[in-house]
Design brief:
heterodimer, A: 120 residues, Arc Repressor Mutant, subunit A, two-stranded antiparallel sheet, 2 strands, 8% strand, B: 855 residues, alpha+beta, six-stranded mixed barrel, 28 helices, globular
Chain lengths: 120, 855
């Protein structure tokens, strides 16, 4: 039981959702807290993103040390509760960059071969 | 919209308790923000719905997380528990054996109660079957015997009754197949028996089994005894009934009635067989038959009972009897005709709970006594961040594990002692390890673990980490007094039980060795049956040829059955005098067999031809109640059953002898000769060469009465049998005493450990100041000695009173022996001092450094 769960938790690599969340955190900078990330993702993807579907990956990423969090200033809006601002750690950033490299490389290869096809 | 307004508390509550997040506060903030947004746009209902829905979405992750951590923690708890177990082997063994004992007792009692409650429940129609009981005029005087015509009349007159069956029981009646004769319990019944009751048939057609008047149905065991493995159906068996043999054909075989059936038999016959001896059956006069009825569905038994109660008056004009219904499942437990066992079910239920409760409390005592050893661990866990509920869970799970281990042992113990218990209580109790029972036992063990772990868990989880880690933790003594009382009362019970054991034991010895006024040694008792009855004089002559056989006589049954009259008339009797006198029918050799002493006159003698018809002998007690100065020669009329009344003269007076058990005083007794009434033969033998003499008896019987089932009893054993209840009681109490002492000593051990633990510093200081080993041992033991003495002082008078009351059951009894006091006192004192001394000496030998190091 324990092993099954553990293996899932220490899974290496990123899911697409995790990658998108990490990128949103980068986009939002100092304002990267849960609601903001959710809204940002909704806007960019044009689909409805729920708060829970962001919250759980966030927790997981934090546990894996890819992001870290700190408490923001107290606000009156949120029932008096402080925001938790997420920032990307070096480890998280390296991982993200690796993903970008893979993406770029793959896209680059595609554009070369597809250029031929477009011309047909 | 005021943004300061908080989200509803109830929603926040859900979020807080069903979300797993390390940042629950800010998550609440995030939720609140969106909640507010939706509230503004779409209203409160939508917002709340959204909130709830999303809390729900967090659930799977929450549950997964919970399981993960729980599994992890349980693994750690069991590891620690196991290490603790090994580190304190002695403690753990005592703990486990205490719980084992408690659980074993509880399980045994539970099995027994289950057996009692299951009585007669195996019949498919059990809820609709009722027994007819008769009220014999007086209040509370009920009996199951009714007239034979009742069954048919009820069935015909009341449409509520679907079916009815009569029973006629005979305890022991011989059957013969070829030259094999066996005794068995006979049950005569109607063919409707198989429609009402569900005793399963193994062979034969259940519907027609009892239809033929000369058919017989055997139980499996009896069939095996007669026919082994071969097919019994259609074979012819002989049945002895009042001295003659009749042929019956086997028409079926049923399973043996289970021990939880109140109807017991070895073979079934159509009830009409009783007419073979001229007994009447379909009349209203002969009151000898049990009647059972099956009601139609949905009939109110109480209403019917009221409706039928006067039926006897309609058929028997003079009858004062009324009839009532008694539900089948009530018969064993509440038996209106006397002897229901529900009292015992309650009693043993309470005893079981008490034993289990005491075992739990002892467990608590021992665990809290160990607390300072565990305090360090608790302190450490608290420092690392475990909260109180986690600690409680840890200790509870530990005690549950111990209880489960104890359960395994308890089941083994129960398996081992169950046969012995079955013997004592005369029941077949069974424990199926792989049955639904086991779930109940697991439940009990689990509860026991929770209860016994609760106090230590609460207690230990309260430990202050700072103190514990500094080593200045002191076990609290808040409930110390309570525990002290508890241990004292445990000892009171132990002393009482030992006391009772001693008294009962002495009384039994007294009963066995008491002078009964007649010789009971080497007398063999046979029942007069079949060939023995017919060829009696020839057999008697043949037997007497053996020089080791002294004398032979026949009598009616006297030892337990009661034949008495208050209608005797004698010369000089005053008006209104009606003393009850027992009647015993004897023959000429009776005095020789039993070595009866005469005080006046002479014994019956064949030289006087009138002795058979007119001779009367009475005992001294009878002379006293008749207040006769010169009894010899006085005219005496003695009414007897079967038209054998005697109108004669008193020819002799015998010395009083105990013809009944020593429970009762010697009653007035009339001896007369009425051979037609005789049922028993007694053979007096010489003590030497008994086996050879018995062999001679067997040879003679085989030659002259081949149809006789050679069964006999020694008279002294039969007399012992009169005190079976007392013997049973004595062995039950003996075991009870052993268990009680064991549990009490455990409690004491726990308490002593606890005390020593508490006073470890004091002991250390005393040692430094020069106290010797014996000083300290005495110091620690003294207090316990005082408690045990208190227990004795409480127990003795109670025991004295209770046992005096018990002894009053006997007309002949011992005084309470001093031994009972001495014995119960010393055993308990000795065992408890042994228990305490062990602890005390260990404490006295401890190096004071270890207890004072942190000061």
């Amino acid at each position: 039981m324990k092993d099954i769960i553990l293996r899932r938790k220490t899974m290496i690599g990123l899911t697409r959702k995790e990658e998108l969340i990490l990128l949103s955190i980068l986009n939002l900078g100092k304002d990267a807290y849960l609601v903001a990330i959710t809204d940002h993702l909704s806007k960019i993807t044009g689909k409805k993103v729920t708060i829970t579907s962001v919250h759980l990956p966030l927790n997981r990423l934090e546990r894996r040390g890819l992001i870290e969090s700190s408490l923001g200033e107290a606000t009156a809006v949120r029932g008096g509760r402080r925001k938790r601002i997420y920032t990307i750690t070096n480890k998280g950033f390296t991982e993200l960059r690796e993903y970008k490299r893979i993406h770029d490389e793959l896209w680059a290869k595609y554009s070369k071969s597809s250029a031929l096809e477009e011309n047909v | 919209m005021s943004s300061k307004k908080r989200t509803p508390r109830i929603l926040e509550f859900f979020l807080r308790h069903f979300a797993s997040s390390q940042h629950i506060e800010s998550l609440q903030g995030d939720f609140a923000e969106i909640y507010d947004r939706i509230l503004r746009e779409k209203g409160k209902a939508k917002a709340s719905l959204w909130y709830l829905l999303h809390v729900l979405k967090l659930m799977p992750a929450f549950i997964e997380n919970k399981i993960y951590w729980t599994v992890d923690m349980i693994r750690s708890y069991t590891k620690i528990a196991f290490r603790n177990f090994l580190r304190h082997k002695g403690f753990s063994l005592i703990n486990i054996s205490g719980l084992t004992l408690g659980l074993a007792c509880a399980i045994l009692i539970l099995i027994w109660i289950q057996h009692e409650l299951s009585y007669d429940g195996f019949h498919t129609e059990a809820d609709r079957i009722h027994r007819i009981i008769l009220n014999y005029g007086k209040k509370d005087s009920f009996g199951p015997h009714g007239p034979g015509a009742l069954s048919q009349a009820l069935k015909e007159q009341y449409p509520e009754i679907a079916d009815s069956a009569r029973f006629f029981f005979v305890n022991k009646n011989p059957l013969r197949y070829k030259d094999k004769v066996l005794n068995g319990a006979l049950c005569g019944t109607d063919p409707s028996f198989t429609r009402i009751f569900s005793f399963p048939f193994l062979l034969g057609d259940r519907k027609k089994a009892l239809a033929h008047p000369r058919s017989i149905v055997l139980t499996e065991t009896l069939s095996k005894k007669f026919f082994g493995r071969s097919d019994p159906l259609g074979r012819t068996l002989g049945l002895e009934w009042w001295g003659r043999w009749y042929d019956f054909t086997v028409s079926g075989v049923v399973e043996d009635p289970p021990s939880n059936s109140h109807i017991q038999f070895d073979y079934l016959l159509p009830i009409d067989f009783v007419t073979l001896s001229g007994m009447e059956i379909d009349t209203w006069d002969a009151i000898a038959y049990h009647t059972y009825i099956l009601l139609n569905e949905g009939i109110d038994a109480q209403a019917l009972s009221d409706k039928i109660s006067g039926i006897l008056q309609r058929h028997l004009s003079e009858s004062a009897y009324t009839i009532h219904l008694e539900a089948l499942r009530h018969i064993h437990l509440y038996n209106d005709a006397g002897g229901g066992s529900i009292m015992y079910v309650y009693l043993f239920g309470i005893i079981g709970l008490l034993i289990l409760g005491i075992a739990c409390i002892n467990f608590m005592n021992l665990s809290t006594a160990q607390s300072s050893q565990r305090a360090l661990e608790v302190g450490m866990r608290k420092v690392v961040g475990s909260n109180r509920s986690q600690l409680i869970a840890q200790f509870l799970s530990e005690s549950v594990v111990i209880a489960l281990i104890a359960l395994c042992f308890a089941i083994a113990v129960v398996k081992a002692v169950l046969p012995a218990i079955g013997d004592i209580t005369d029941t077949q109790l069974a424990l199926e390890i792989l049955g639904p029972q086991i779930l109940v036992f697991l439940g009990i063990a689990f509860l026991t673990g929770l209860v016994s772990g609760s106090y230590p868990a609460l207690y230990l989880s309260r430990v202050l980490p700072m103190r514990a880690l500094k080593g200045t933790h002191v076990s609290g003594g808040r409930s110390f007094l309570f525990r002290k009382y508890l241990v004292v009362s445990q000892f009171v019970i132990s002393i009482l039980l030992i006391f009772a054991t001693v008294v009962i034991y002495e009384q039994l010895i007294f009963l066995r060795s008491a002078d009964l006024g007649f010789d009971k040694e080497h007398i063999v008792n046979f029942e007069l049956r079949g060939g023995l009855r017919q060829n009696y004089s020839a057999i008697k002559q043949e037997l007497l040829k053996n020089p080791n056989i002294v004398a032979i006589c026949t009598t009616n049954r006297s030892l337990s059955k009661r034949f008495a009259t208050d209608k005797a008339v004698w010369e000089g009797k005053e008006e209104g005098e009606r003393p009850v006198m027992a009647i015993h029918s004897v023959d000429f050799d009776y005095a020789d067999v039993f070595d009866i002493q005469l005080v006046q006159g002479r014994y019956f003698s064949e030289e006087y031809s009138t002795d058979i018809s007119e001779g009367i002998i009475v005992n001294e007690a009878a002379v006293r109640v008749m207040s006769l100065k010169e009894p010899i020669g006085k005219r005496f009329f003695c009414p007897m059953p079967f038209n054998m009344s005697k109108n004669g003269k008193i020819i002799g007076v015998v010395k009083d002898f105990h013809f009944r058990s020593l429970h009762s005083k010697i009653e007035p007794l009339i001896l007369a000769i009425a051979p037609g009434w005789h049922t028993d033969m007694y053979v007096k033998m010489r003590g030497q060469d008994l086996p050879a003499t018995l062999a001679h008896v067997e040879r003679t019987f085989r030659a002259l009465a081949p149809d006789f089932a050679l069964e006999f009893n020694f008279l002294d054993e039969k007399i012992d049998g009169l005190y079976r209840t007392e013997k049973r009681l004595s062995s039950l109490i003996k075991y009870g005493a052993m268990i009680a002492i064991f549990i009490a000593c455990m409690g004491l051990f726990g308490l002593a450990s606890f005390m020593v633990e508490q006073r470890s510093k004091e002991i250390g200081i005393r040692k430094i100041l020069g106290a010797s080993l014996s000083n300290i041992t005495f110091l620690l033991t003294r207090e316990f000695g005082v408690w045990i003495s208190i227990a004795n002082v409480i127990a003795w008078p109670v025991g004295y009173y209770v046992m005096r009351k018990w002894l009053e059951n006997f007309a002949y009894r011992i005084d309470i022996p001093i031994r009972a006091f001495v014995f119960s006192g010393t055993i308990v004192l000795g065992l408890s001092l042994l228990t305490v001394c062990h602890k005390a000496i260990k404490a006295a030998l401890t190096n004071p450094v270890s207890s004072l190091r942190y000061e």
